[in-house]
Amino acid sequence: MGRNDDKKRPKAVSPTPLRDWMDRQTPRRKIGFVMLGALLMACGARASVFFDLSPVPATQLTFFAMLSGALLGSQLGTLAGVAYLLAASAFGFLWPAGSGVAPLVGPLAGYLWSVPAVAFLSGYFVERARSEQPVFFAIGACAAIAVYDVLGSLRLMLAQNASAAEAVARGAGLFTGQHIAQGALAVFIASSASSHLQARQNK
Predict the structure, then answer these.
(1) Which CATH architecture has domain 15-202?
(2) pLDDT of 117-147, one tens digit each?
(3) 4 to each of 8, 10, 149, how far by Cα in Å?
(4) pTM over 0.90
């Protein structure tokens, strides 16, 4: 009788299957995921387009930073962002802003220094709520975009002696649509991965 009751009882489904899966990985695999996240950020940063209206290039760096945080979690995502900054500075692949450490103190430094924070925020709210519902991924993406644009525009304003409105218009304003699309795609991928893992739990 007891065995039959156990068979009929539904399995407990975790609200954070993606985080649970990542926690089960070995330290070596986690390091590999961090390095992969950093590599994707570097590739996304190099895929750039410049416009005459802005000194800031349009890249996929923000997207891969958000995706790393959403998939790997806030801590590993942050490590991926830091690894990107260190490795890209050392090997001269620090997005189109230049080589070496010069971009980290240049007019666009705010955008670069915000990358670890972008990754952290993309995963933080899911962990805070202990739920991988799309709404919590979306909150993280919105916070990440806000930090990226605010820090980047602030440094741009100080470097060019521009007004806050001008700095925002020339920096963040031109890329609002792109950032929203990148955030939405990161949310979709992360929530889809979570749903897939949750479906496997139910089997």
Answers:
(1) Orthogonal Bundle (1.10)
(2) 999 999 999 999 999 999 999 999 999 999 9
(3) 6, 12, 57
(4) no
